[in-house]
Design a protein that fits this description.
It is built from 11 helices and 17 strands. It is α+β, with helices and mostly antiparallel strands and about 350 residues long. The protein has 3 domains: about 140 residues, Outer membrane lipoprotein wza domain like (Outer membrane lipoprotein wza fold like); about 120 residues, Outer membrane lipoprotein wza fold like, CATH 3.10.560.10; about 60 residues, wza like fold, CATH 3.30.1950. It has a 5-stranded mixed beta sheet with strand order 7-6-12-10-11. The longest helix has 17 residues. The protein starts with a helix and ends in a 7-residue tail after the last helix. One of its GO terms (cellular component) is pore complex. It is found in: Cell outer membrane. It is a multi-pass membrane protein. It holds the Pfam family SLBB_2. One of its GO terms (molecular function) is porin activity.
Length: about 350
Protein backbone atom coordinates (compact mmCIF):
# COMPACT_ATOMS: atom_id res chain seq x y z
CA UNK A 1 0.00 0.00 0.00
CA UNK A 2 2.84 2.39 0.88
CA UNK A 3 4.44 1.80 -2.51
CA UNK A 4 1.16 2.46 -4.32
CA UNK A 5 0.55 5.72 -2.46
CA UNK A 6 4.09 6.94 -3.19
CA UNK A 7 3.83 6.11 -6.90
CA UNK A 8 0.48 7.85 -7.10
CA UNK A 9 2.04 10.88 -5.43
CA UNK A 10 4.91 10.92 -7.93
CA UNK A 11 2.75 10.53 -11.02
CA UNK A 12 -0.39 12.52 -10.18
CA UNK A 13 -1.62 15.33 -7.98
CA UNK A 14 1.18 15.28 -5.40
CA UNK A 15 3.70 15.72 -8.20
CA UNK A 16 1.81 18.73 -9.51
CA UNK A 17 2.36 20.57 -6.21
CA UNK A 18 6.16 20.52 -6.63
CA UNK A 19 7.92 23.84 -7.30
CA UNK A 20 8.65 24.88 -10.92
CA UNK A 21 11.10 22.60 -12.70
CA UNK A 22 14.46 24.29 -12.28
CA UNK A 23 17.91 23.30 -11.03
CA UNK A 24 18.39 23.55 -7.29
CA UNK A 25 21.11 25.49 -5.52
CA UNK A 26 23.59 22.60 -5.78
CA UNK A 27 24.94 24.25 -8.95
CA UNK A 28 24.41 21.41 -11.40
CA UNK A 29 26.17 21.87 -14.76
CA UNK A 30 23.93 23.13 -17.58
CA UNK A 31 22.33 20.69 -19.98
CA UNK A 32 23.99 19.96 -23.30
CA UNK A 33 23.47 22.88 -25.65
CA UNK A 34 21.99 22.56 -29.11
CA UNK A 35 23.99 23.91 -32.06
CA UNK A 36 21.92 27.14 -32.34
CA UNK A 37 22.34 27.76 -28.61
CA UNK A 38 26.10 27.21 -28.80
CA UNK A 39 26.31 29.46 -31.86
CA UNK A 40 24.43 32.19 -30.02
CA UNK A 41 27.04 32.08 -27.25
CA UNK A 42 29.77 32.60 -29.84
CA UNK A 43 27.97 35.58 -31.41
CA UNK A 44 25.74 36.93 -28.61
CA UNK A 45 25.02 40.20 -30.41
CA UNK A 46 24.00 38.72 -33.75
CA UNK A 47 20.57 37.43 -34.72
CA UNK A 48 20.69 33.76 -35.69
CA UNK A 49 18.27 34.48 -38.54
CA UNK A 50 20.62 37.11 -39.99
CA UNK A 51 23.58 34.79 -39.50
CA UNK A 52 21.81 32.01 -41.41
CA UNK A 53 20.94 34.48 -44.18
CA UNK A 54 24.61 35.45 -44.38
CA UNK A 55 25.62 31.79 -44.61
CA UNK A 56 23.03 31.19 -47.34
CA UNK A 57 24.70 33.82 -49.51
CA UNK A 58 28.15 32.24 -49.43
CA UNK A 59 29.37 30.32 -52.46
CA UNK A 60 29.83 26.59 -51.96
CA UNK A 61 32.80 26.30 -54.32
CA UNK A 62 36.08 28.00 -55.08
CA UNK A 63 35.58 29.30 -58.62
CA UNK A 64 39.09 28.92 -59.99
CA UNK A 65 41.18 25.86 -60.78
CA UNK A 66 43.85 24.92 -58.24
CA UNK A 67 46.79 22.46 -58.29
CA UNK A 68 45.56 18.96 -57.48
CA UNK A 69 42.17 19.42 -59.17
CA UNK A 70 41.29 16.63 -61.60
CA UNK A 71 39.32 16.88 -64.87
CA UNK A 72 37.79 14.81 -67.63
CA UNK A 73 38.42 16.03 -71.18
CA UNK A 74 36.67 14.91 -74.34
CA UNK A 75 36.58 16.32 -77.87
CA UNK A 76 33.56 15.65 -80.07
CA UNK A 77 34.45 13.24 -82.86
CA UNK A 78 37.99 12.71 -81.53
CA UNK A 79 37.88 9.71 -79.13
CA UNK A 80 41.68 9.41 -79.10
CA UNK A 81 41.89 12.78 -77.32
CA UNK A 82 39.72 11.70 -74.38
CA UNK A 83 41.25 11.66 -70.91
CA UNK A 84 39.77 10.92 -67.48
CA UNK A 85 40.86 12.15 -64.08
CA UNK A 86 43.80 14.19 -65.36
CA UNK A 87 45.35 16.07 -62.41
CA UNK A 88 46.59 19.65 -62.45
CA UNK A 89 50.27 19.52 -61.47
CA UNK A 90 51.76 21.59 -58.62
CA UNK A 91 53.10 24.05 -61.24
CA UNK A 92 49.53 24.65 -62.47
CA UNK A 93 49.89 22.66 -65.69
CA UNK A 94 47.29 20.29 -67.16
CA UNK A 95 48.81 17.86 -69.66
CA UNK A 96 46.43 17.33 -72.60
CA UNK A 97 46.64 14.94 -75.56
CA UNK A 98 47.92 16.46 -78.81
CA UNK A 99 48.37 20.01 -77.50
CA UNK A 100 50.64 19.21 -74.53
CA UNK A 101 50.95 21.30 -71.37
CA UNK A 102 48.35 23.99 -70.68
CA UNK A 103 48.58 26.42 -67.74
CA UNK A 104 45.16 26.41 -66.07
CA UNK A 105 45.71 27.44 -62.43
CA UNK A 106 43.66 30.53 -61.57
CA UNK A 107 41.29 30.06 -64.50
CA UNK A 108 37.63 29.14 -64.26
CA UNK A 109 36.63 25.83 -65.82
CA UNK A 110 34.99 27.67 -68.73
CA UNK A 111 38.09 29.79 -69.30
CA UNK A 112 40.31 26.69 -69.26
CA UNK A 113 38.02 24.95 -71.77
CA UNK A 114 38.19 27.98 -74.08
CA UNK A 115 41.99 28.01 -73.81
CA UNK A 116 42.14 24.31 -74.70
CA UNK A 117 39.84 24.97 -77.66
CA UNK A 118 42.13 27.70 -79.00
CA UNK A 119 45.12 25.36 -78.80
CA UNK A 120 43.20 22.55 -80.52
CA UNK A 121 42.27 24.87 -83.40
CA UNK A 122 45.93 24.75 -84.41
CA UNK A 123 45.46 21.04 -85.24
CA UNK A 124 41.71 20.39 -85.67
CA UNK A 125 39.06 22.30 -87.59
CA UNK A 126 36.22 23.56 -85.37
CA UNK A 127 37.07 21.47 -82.28
CA UNK A 128 34.38 21.12 -79.61
CA UNK A 129 36.08 20.19 -76.34
CA UNK A 130 34.28 19.45 -73.08
CA UNK A 131 36.14 19.96 -69.80
CA UNK A 132 34.35 18.72 -66.69
CA UNK A 133 35.51 18.53 -63.06
CA UNK A 134 36.36 15.03 -61.84
CA UNK A 135 37.47 16.02 -58.34
CA UNK A 136 38.42 19.26 -56.65
CA UNK A 137 41.45 18.88 -54.37
CA UNK A 138 41.26 20.41 -50.91
CA UNK A 139 37.53 20.94 -51.23
CA UNK A 140 36.46 18.13 -48.95
CA UNK A 141 33.85 18.19 -46.21
CA UNK A 142 33.47 15.59 -43.47
CA UNK A 143 30.32 14.09 -41.99
CA UNK A 144 30.60 11.62 -39.12
CA UNK A 145 28.33 9.97 -36.57
CA UNK A 146 25.03 8.21 -37.14
CA UNK A 147 24.91 8.28 -40.94
CA UNK A 148 25.17 5.20 -43.13
CA UNK A 149 28.36 6.23 -44.97
CA UNK A 150 30.40 8.53 -42.71
CA UNK A 151 33.56 10.02 -44.14
CA UNK A 152 34.95 12.81 -46.31
CA UNK A 153 33.29 13.92 -49.54
CA UNK A 154 34.65 16.09 -52.33
CA UNK A 155 32.73 19.21 -53.31
CA UNK A 156 32.63 18.80 -57.07
CA UNK A 157 29.47 20.89 -57.37
CA UNK A 158 27.44 23.25 -55.16
CA UNK A 159 26.44 21.19 -52.13
CA UNK A 160 24.16 21.95 -49.19
CA UNK A 161 23.53 20.27 -45.83
CA UNK A 162 20.74 18.01 -47.12
CA UNK A 163 22.88 17.06 -50.13
CA UNK A 164 25.73 15.75 -47.98
CA UNK A 165 23.29 13.85 -45.74
CA UNK A 166 22.07 12.17 -48.92
CA UNK A 167 25.64 11.47 -50.06
CA UNK A 168 26.27 9.85 -46.68
CA UNK A 169 23.32 7.50 -47.21
CA UNK A 170 20.94 9.15 -44.77
CA UNK A 171 20.71 8.51 -41.05
CA UNK A 172 21.49 5.17 -39.45
CA UNK A 173 18.68 2.93 -38.26
CA UNK A 174 19.05 0.41 -35.44
CA UNK A 175 17.20 -1.61 -32.85
CA UNK A 176 16.61 -0.05 -29.43
CA UNK A 177 14.54 -2.05 -26.96
CA UNK A 178 13.23 -4.32 -29.73
CA UNK A 179 12.03 -1.42 -31.88
CA UNK A 180 13.52 -0.24 -35.17
CA UNK A 181 14.36 3.43 -34.80
CA UNK A 182 16.47 6.15 -36.37
CA UNK A 183 19.66 6.48 -34.34
CA UNK A 184 20.44 10.10 -35.21
CA UNK A 185 20.06 12.68 -32.45
CA UNK A 186 19.19 15.62 -34.69
CA UNK A 187 18.60 17.98 -31.79
CA UNK A 188 22.28 17.85 -30.84
CA UNK A 189 23.78 17.42 -34.32
CA UNK A 190 26.12 20.26 -35.22
CA UNK A 191 28.23 21.79 -37.98
CA UNK A 192 31.63 23.43 -37.48
CA UNK A 193 33.38 25.85 -39.84
CA UNK A 194 36.82 27.20 -38.98
CA UNK A 195 36.39 26.19 -35.32
CA UNK A 196 33.03 27.96 -35.06
CA UNK A 197 29.75 26.14 -34.41
CA UNK A 198 27.23 27.34 -36.99
CA UNK A 199 23.56 27.98 -36.07
CA UNK A 200 22.26 25.12 -38.22
CA UNK A 201 19.23 23.45 -36.60
CA UNK A 202 19.25 19.91 -38.02
CA UNK A 203 16.01 18.96 -36.30
CA UNK A 204 14.15 21.95 -37.77
CA UNK A 205 15.68 21.30 -41.20
CA UNK A 206 14.93 17.58 -41.45
CA UNK A 207 11.70 17.25 -39.47
CA UNK A 208 10.09 20.63 -40.10
CA UNK A 209 11.48 21.50 -43.53
CA UNK A 210 12.92 24.86 -42.43
CA UNK A 211 15.21 25.32 -45.41
CA UNK A 212 16.96 28.41 -44.06
CA UNK A 213 19.12 25.83 -42.25
CA UNK A 214 20.04 24.12 -45.55
CA UNK A 215 23.11 26.29 -46.06
CA UNK A 216 25.81 25.80 -48.74
CA UNK A 217 28.87 23.87 -47.61
CA UNK A 218 32.42 25.18 -47.87
CA UNK A 219 35.67 23.21 -48.03
CA UNK A 220 36.72 22.04 -44.58
CA UNK A 221 33.22 21.99 -43.08
CA UNK A 222 32.64 19.32 -40.41
CA UNK A 223 29.24 17.83 -39.57
CA UNK A 224 28.56 15.46 -36.69
CA UNK A 225 25.36 13.54 -35.92
CA UNK A 226 25.43 11.99 -32.42
CA UNK A 227 23.54 8.87 -31.44
CA UNK A 228 20.12 9.03 -29.85
CA UNK A 229 21.06 5.82 -28.03
CA UNK A 230 23.00 8.03 -25.64
CA UNK A 231 19.81 9.90 -24.75
CA UNK A 232 18.89 7.87 -21.69
CA UNK A 233 18.99 8.19 -17.92
CA UNK A 234 19.60 5.32 -15.53
CA UNK A 235 17.90 4.62 -12.20
CA UNK A 236 19.63 2.04 -10.02
CA UNK A 237 19.65 0.71 -6.48
CA UNK A 238 16.64 0.60 -4.16
CA UNK A 239 13.87 1.03 -6.74
CA UNK A 240 11.40 -1.54 -8.02
CA UNK A 241 12.60 -1.45 -11.64
CA UNK A 242 16.31 -0.73 -12.15
CA UNK A 243 16.67 0.21 -15.79
CA UNK A 244 17.49 2.85 -18.38
CA UNK A 245 14.74 5.23 -19.48
CA UNK A 246 14.46 7.43 -22.56
CA UNK A 247 15.48 10.98 -21.81
CA UNK A 248 13.31 13.96 -22.74
CA UNK A 249 13.71 17.68 -22.23
CA UNK A 250 12.46 18.79 -18.83
CA UNK A 251 12.90 15.34 -17.31
CA UNK A 252 13.38 15.53 -13.53
CA UNK A 253 14.64 13.32 -10.74
CA UNK A 254 11.06 12.72 -9.55
CA UNK A 255 9.94 11.60 -12.99
CA UNK A 256 12.89 9.26 -13.46
CA UNK A 257 12.30 7.57 -10.10
CA UNK A 258 8.60 7.28 -10.92
CA UNK A 259 9.50 5.56 -14.22
CA UNK A 260 11.48 3.07 -12.09
CA UNK A 261 8.24 2.25 -10.22
CA UNK A 262 9.29 4.23 -7.17
CA UNK A 263 11.70 3.64 -4.27
CA UNK A 264 11.59 0.56 -2.07
CA UNK A 265 10.85 0.75 1.65
CA UNK A 266 14.56 0.44 2.49
CA UNK A 267 15.60 3.31 0.21
CA UNK A 268 17.66 6.13 1.69
CA UNK A 269 15.75 9.07 0.18
CA UNK A 270 17.85 11.65 2.02
CA UNK A 271 20.93 10.78 -0.06
CA UNK A 272 20.10 10.05 -3.69
CA UNK A 273 23.28 10.03 -5.73
CA UNK A 274 23.35 11.76 -9.13
CA UNK A 275 26.34 10.81 -11.32
CA UNK A 276 27.03 12.97 -14.35
CA UNK A 277 29.82 12.94 -16.92
CA UNK A 278 32.45 10.49 -18.09
CA UNK A 279 34.38 7.98 -16.04
CA UNK A 280 37.58 10.05 -16.31
CA UNK A 281 35.91 13.09 -14.71
CA UNK A 282 32.58 12.17 -13.12
CA UNK A 283 30.59 14.81 -11.27
CA UNK A 284 28.79 13.59 -8.16
CA UNK A 285 25.83 15.23 -6.43
CA UNK A 286 23.89 14.07 -3.39
CA UNK A 287 20.21 15.05 -3.53
CA UNK A 288 17.66 15.09 -0.73
CA UNK A 289 14.79 13.38 -2.52
CA UNK A 290 12.70 13.31 0.65
CA UNK A 291 12.81 17.12 0.71
CA UNK A 292 11.88 17.21 -2.99
CA UNK A 293 8.84 15.01 -2.32
CA UNK A 294 7.78 17.29 0.51
CA UNK A 295 8.19 20.39 -1.72
CA UNK A 296 10.91 21.70 0.58
CA UNK A 297 13.42 21.73 -2.28
CA UNK A 298 12.97 22.22 -6.01
CA UNK A 299 13.02 19.19 -8.26
CA UNK A 300 16.22 18.75 -10.30
CA UNK A 301 16.44 18.70 -14.08
CA UNK A 302 18.31 15.74 -15.55
CA UNK A 303 20.62 15.48 -18.53
CA UNK A 304 20.95 12.61 -20.98
CA UNK A 305 23.33 10.01 -19.60
CA UNK A 306 22.70 10.86 -15.94
CA UNK A 307 22.77 8.01 -13.42
CA UNK A 308 20.61 8.06 -10.28
CA UNK A 309 21.54 5.64 -7.51
CA UNK A 310 19.43 5.12 -4.39
CA UNK A 311 21.24 3.30 -1.61
CA UNK A 312 19.82 1.40 1.34
CA UNK A 313 22.09 3.08 3.85
CA UNK A 314 23.82 6.39 4.55
CA UNK A 315 26.84 7.55 2.56
CA UNK A 316 29.26 9.08 5.03
CA UNK A 317 32.36 9.92 2.99
CA UNK A 318 33.60 10.74 -0.47
CA UNK A 319 35.27 7.33 -0.69
CA UNK A 320 31.98 5.72 0.27
CA UNK A 321 30.21 7.63 -2.52
CA UNK A 322 32.86 6.66 -5.07
CA UNK A 323 32.30 2.99 -4.31
CA UNK A 324 28.80 3.47 -5.68
CA UNK A 325 29.34 6.08 -8.39
CA UNK A 326 32.28 4.73 -10.36
CA UNK A 327 30.95 1.19 -10.90
CA UNK A 328 27.62 2.71 -11.96
CA UNK A 329 29.23 5.05 -14.45
CA UNK A 330 31.53 2.34 -15.78
CA UNK A 331 28.59 0.00 -16.28
CA UNK A 332 26.57 2.64 -18.11
CA UNK A 333 29.38 3.60 -20.47
CA UNK A 334 30.36 -0.01 -21.04
CA UNK A 335 26.83 -0.98 -22.01
CA UNK A 336 26.53 -3.62 -19.27
CA UNK A 337 23.26 -4.87 -17.84
CA UNK A 338 23.00 -2.33 -15.06
CA UNK A 339 20.37 -3.99 -12.97
CA UNK A 340 22.48 -7.15 -12.78
CA UNK A 341 25.44 -5.20 -11.43
CA UNK A 342 23.39 -3.46 -8.77
CA UNK A 343 20.75 -6.05 -7.99
CA UNK A 344 22.33 -6.98 -4.67
CA UNK A 345 24.64 -4.00 -4.09
CA UNK A 346 24.12 -1.75 -1.08
CA UNK A 347 26.16 0.93 0.64
CA UNK A 348 27.21 0.11 4.15
CA UNK A 349 27.50 2.75 6.88
Amino acid sequence: MKRGILLLCLLSSCYQTLPPQRPTEINLPPRQLTAPEQAQLERPNQSLELWLAELQSQSALVDTIQPGDAFNLSVYGEPELEMKGAVVRPDGILACPLIGDIAVTGLTVDSARAKIQRELEKYIQNPRPTLSPYQFAGRNITILGKVNRPGSYSLSQPTRVLDVIGLAGGFSVGIIKNDSTELADLKHAFMVRKQTVLPVDFEALVKQGKLQNNIPLLPGDYLYVPSIAQQEVYVLGEVYEQNSFSFHDGMTVSQAIAYAKGPKDAANLRQVLLVRGRLSQPELFVLDFQAILQAQEADVLLQAGDVLYISSGPMKSFQNIMQVALPALQAVQGGALLYELFRSRSVTP
